[in-house]
Amino acid sequence: MPEKFSPPSDNNLSRRDFFRGLGGFVASHWFLSALPLGGVGVLAYARHDSLDLKKEHWDLFYPNLPTSLEGKTICQLSDLHLETLRILPERIEQIVMARKPDLLVITGDIISTRTDLDKLESFLGGLTATYGKFAVMGNNDYSHLSRTLFKHYLQQFQDLGWTPLLNTASF
């Protein structure tokens, strides 16, 4: 039978020696030591980034724009990734509807997993726009759903009054 080894009891490491050794490791391996901190920084930024919407207002000028389109407001939502979005649906509705959009467009990556299908109504159901609401799918919308679930996903948009654009145009 193999001999059992027990840890040596006479080699106790004091707290001071432990931290002194840790400090020496960090000083001599600063790059390896910084990797976890960089990862924490990226995660903190991603978490912060999912707490609020980035709002930009662009006043565009086109010399040949028909007068019927003058002063119209287009509101675009992009890369919502509902599974990581930490904004309440009411907050999104408040921000979007305060802009009084004439046209509302979602451009891709609304969901990333099939578990987010039940979130569409709460996040998008209360949004309205005078000239319509349109959705363009992103790579995450296509890649994480089976063909059957993708059809169900598109039907959910239509049931909420959105027009999914799939290599089509709508006038």
Could you explain how this protein is built, in words?
By secondary structure, the chain is an alpha/beta fold. It has helices at 15-28, 30-49, 89-98, 120-124, 139-143, 147-159, and strands spanning 74-78, 103-107, 133-136, 163-165. A 4-stranded parallel β-sheet has the order 1-2-3-4. The longest helix has 20 residues, at 30-49. Mean pLDDT is 78; it is low at 39-50.
Features of this protein?
4 strands, 171 residues, 39% helix, alpha/beta
Uncertain parts: 39-50
Shape: elongated
Q: Tell me roughly what share of residues is in helical segments.
A: 25-40%
- Report the mean per-residue pLDDT as an integer: 78
SSE class: alpha/beta
User: How do the helices and strands follow one another from N- to C-terminus?
Assistant: HHEHEHEHHE
Number of strands: 4
